[in-house]
Design a protein that fits this description.
CATH class of the largest domain in chain A: Alpha Beta
CATH superfamily of the largest domain in chain A: Bira Bifunctional Protein, Domain 2
Strand content of chain A: 25-35%
Structural class of chain A: alpha+beta
Largest interface: A-B, 53 and 53 residues
Number of helices of chain A: 17
CATH architecture of the largest domain in chain A: 2-Layer Sandwich
Helix content of chain A: 25-40%
Shape of chain A: globular
Oligomer: homodimer
Number of strands of chain A: 31
Distance between the termini of chain A: 22 Å
Radius of gyration of chain A: 29 Å
Largest sheet of chain A: 9 strands, mixed
Number of domains of chain A: 3
């Protein structure tokens, strides 16, 4: 493909709203263009990379007996009401009415549609198991779309659904998809980890996420030193570093007395309070307030040094979605004090307590009176009532490995895949049943499995780039070889370029030829930006000296070969890179 | 692929709402399943056919220098307002608001998005020409979705857009796409015609449609005997059969007198009136009423024997969309009489007159009084005022060829492709400009080109089927060879099946194997329904007699070959069928 015949416009600068390198580079390389917030047009180069990745996904799924179909993006309300998710999905589910007043949504996921599809066909255990998948456009009304394809509103996804007779079969299907995903991301050529994860509002009993590691990743991952345990921080169990109590949990001090109010004027934060009292944050208690989707406020107590984990709170309370933090005015209305002076005493709402706080005693909390705190507080004495004790805090780097020896190490990742064992959540709600060998009607055991196609491509760029541009892994590179024609009008240059293109194309590689009338410097800069694995610099002077430069994009190493051995050298290099 | 490993459930009967054969057959073959009215899931077999057709489309477009990209389905109101089509597209454009109150629509077509994409990149004449296309899901809120994929709400389309420096270039791009479409539908293996067409609310100066011929086609096409003229009836010029006036256009009779009312009780239709008066329908005048999108009623006069052509009325009045026929009550409110007794005299609304009526004189029209008509009416005398005379009727089979000798012949077709020369309608409205060689800013010359992907597949089935099932053209057949294993447990049968599968797969063909434990009759019936080009009947008895049957689906011809020569015979037959 010649640049002069391509629709390709590179940019020197990306728009200001491109915040992370991969977003900047995709904009600059003409791969994506914003149509509206979180909604993009994919240019020809992006689409080539996407198609290559889709092909890898298809091959690995088909190899494992999965079958491809295509479900619609527009889905009727009635199906979503059968599972209760019409409400439960919240405002992220984009709903609308048609001209006849019928209600629809744009598919953000397809459990309802596939379960409906399958229940019409499946009758007997003989019809099971099977796994159906699609590669399709999804839509979610993200509040704050950002980072290009990382958190978009409209996005390309592969979603697969497995259907089995029993739990054992479903477990096998889950493992098979786990293997498929390992194979897919390995072939993609990305560094990735698999972590335990929350099931969100997909539901089910077990789920794992596949993350491409990158510093700008939105998710924090905690991995044990031996690599055998890995979890998204959202669900990573938080163990205490030492089993001993804190200094303030001195039983004796609890015996008598009652909480005593003291003035803390102007102390708004845990840090302020720690500084003023000389007591470490891990020995202070922090009072937070959240609102559930049922519009019920709750109080959460944590150590001053800890961070609340909304997903753990959601799971402890069996909510469909993580609760929302109250804004300052709501806190004031609820407690009589602004945040910073609030505490659990005298509250009329449920109080959820992190397990690290449960072990504490004789501690300081806000007095629910602006500028005052209470000291000598003890839930053991009944100063306030604990509704429930649970693990509600974010685990941290350095926390003990919950499944073995050593400590946890923190990484940042971009979630590109997610696999769920669903059980019978959808098949029971929608009566997707089959007649078992024993003559009994049973709900089908299901699993579901997603890969963000566009996001994977951007994540690969986020992980593989340098200051000059993209460094494509050969697996999904739009083109494999980039020829900079330094003298595009020179017949000898033209004929060698054509020879290279014909030979490499015959071997299944794709060649991009910069035949523009531009200076070499401009061409080299664009070649680095576009980032195809190998570049050739081909000009009259080199040919006169019987020398052609092959530049490897990843490390910018240069080898010089004779024009005669160019094709052979390229093929060898390409094989090496695979 | 073995049936036992496939997700494939055939049906004996299709649901009652499947009205035409292709819809029935696609339902019965498990190719599509309804999710909501006009919204379908495509099963694995349908998707295979679709993907094959997409590949043909891609190859023919790429060969001609077109480049593939992918635009979003969700599009912001702002872009559509730039061209005025946010209003003009009417209720077929599905609109909605997101959680922040921003307005969007689902893309029914992508002129606005592609023009926006291009205007951000193109600066100079050196950046032109180019042609960009996508294969993507579109949505239109059809009032009455029907016939499966023929008139669906959600549908798969290939849409391409050409961008040129000037009209000459744009004409060349149009012709190149016309050639591409000819090649695409020829490779598809369908009988098709190209006809002159209306531009609808896409706009532009010239357009042609590609129709797959089929009796159930929604469009009527008129083709000259020499084949050089072809038009959709919507735009086919209607010429009069003879140049002589009608019997009633007797100048003498107009001289004196005035229209005279006479009683026509119970005569509601032109046929009634013709019978009662003894005057042929072609000598009577029919009065019809329509409402424009600006909510202005208009009157249209036609010969009693003619049918109104809403597209011609739209074009004569320069409306964006065809006008709507008034309902009876609206007519009564407007004229004082129910339809059947209405006429042009005394009306206060514009009166549009078909050119065949313009030549008439001394005729009968309704009196705008129930049960009465007027005779001796003459517009020449000024009985009423003609707002405009134009060709407003449907041309018919037998009408003169408007561009040559002979008569027109009628066909029915399914529109599967449509090409438009747009001119600068969109580039002017959206300021998609470039700096010409002369240093002047100019709007880009555009064309747009669509192919209904899903509809093409169904149209092929509509054209190619018999009472037993589908007859796939090999170009898009999901599988090429269907093996009915008559004794699936017999090792000799199994090993021959495997040999055939391996050999044909190596040659790029796909083999479907019915390995179910079913009776031969059931298998043959399903093979006929699924309709792959060749079937092999393979059982123990045949093998003992060293005989395998190869059945050609199209004509059910059977040849018998020895097991040894089976692979060779199949390959030869498949080559023949291409």
């Amino acid at each position: 493909m010649k640049w002069s015949k391509s629709y390709l416009f590179t940019l020197r600068e990306a728009p200001a709203d491109a915040e992370i390198p991969s977003h900047v580079l995709m904009m600059r390389a003409g791969m994506i263009r914003k149509v509206a917030a979180g909604i993009y047009t994919y240019g020809p180069l992006a689409l080539k990379a996407i198609r290559r990745f889709e092909q890898i996904v298809r091959e690995e799924l088909n190899k494992r007996g999965c079958q491809e179909l295509l479900m619609p993006m527009v889905q009727p309300k009635e199906l979503w009401e059968e599972t209760g998710r019409w409400q439960e999905m919240g405002e992220g589910l984009q709903k609308f009415k048609n001209r006849n007043g019928h209600e629809f949504c744009l598919g953000a996921t397809h459990e309802e549609v596939i379960t409906d599809f399958v229940r019409k066909d499946v009758k007997s255990y003989r019809d099971l198991p099977f796994n159906l998948y699609q590669i399709q456009t999804k839509y979610r009304d993200e509040i704050r779309p950002r980072f290009g394809l990382m958190r978009g509103r409209e996005f390309l996804m592969k979603d697969a659904y497995s259907f089995d007779r029993d739990q054992e079969g479903a477990e096998g299907s889950y493992q098979l998809m786990r293997e498929a995903y390992q194979a897919i991301f390995t072939r993609l050529g990305a560094r990735f980890v698999v972590v335990a994860a929350d099931s969100g509002n997909i539901g089910g009993n077990r789920s794992e996420e596949f993350h491409i590691l990158a510093d700008s990743g939105e998710d924090q991952l905690l991995v044990s030193e031996d690599g055998l345990f890995a979890a998204n921080v959202e669900v990573c169990p938080a163990l205490l570093k030492e089993e001993s109590g804190t200094a303030s949990s001195d039983k004796a001090s609890v015996q008598g007395g009652a909480p005593e109010e003291f003035a803390t004027p102007g102390l708004k934060t845990i840090a302020d309070l720690a500084k003023s009292t000389g007591i470490g944050p891990e020995q202070l208690v922090k009072t937070m307030f959240f609102m559930t989707e049922a519009q019920e406020p709750i109080c959460v107590l944590l150590r001053g040094s800890d961070e609340a984990n909304p997903v753990k709170i959601k799971n402890a309370l069996r909510l469909a979605n993580p609760p929302r933090l109250l804004v300052d005015q709501e806190v004031k209305d609820l407690t009589g004090a602004w945040p910073g002076s609030c505490g659990p005493l005298g509250l009329k709402i449920p109080i959820y307590v992190d397990q690290a706080v449960e072990r504490m005693d004789n501690y300081i909390v806000g007095a629910n009176r602006d500028g005052f705190h209470l000291k000598g507080v003890s839930h053991r004495r009944g100063d306030f009532k604990l509704t429930q004790v649970a693990d509600l805090r974010m685990a941290q780097e350095g926390d003990p490995n919950p499944q073995g020896q050593g400590q946890l190490k923190a990484y940042r990742g971009i979630e590109v895949g997610h696999i769920f064992y669903l059980g019978t959540k959808y098949s029971q709600a929608m009566e997707a049943q089959f007649l078992g060998e024993d003559g009994q009607l049973k709900p089908i055991e299901m699993g579901c499995y997603g890969i963000g196609i566009g996001r994977s491509i951007q994540a690969v760029i986020e992980q593989n780039h340098d200051k000059d541009g993209i460094i494509w892994p050969p697996s999904v590179a739009p083109f494999h070889v980039h020829i900079c024609m330094l003298d595009p009008d020179e017949p000898a240059v033209q004929s060698l370029v054509e020879e290279v293109e014909v030979a490499l194309t015959a071997d299944g590689y794709e060649v991009f030829i910069d035949d523009r009338a531009e200076r070499p410097g401009v061409k080299f800069k664009d070649a680095d930006l576009l980032g195809f694995p190998l570049r050739i610099n081909l000009g009259s002077r080199g040919l006169q000296q019987a020398e052609v430069e092959i530049v490897e994009r990843r490390n910018k190493s240069i080898i010089k070969v004779s024009p005669k051995s160019l094709v052979g050298a390229l093929l060898e290099k390409l094989k090496e890179l695979q």
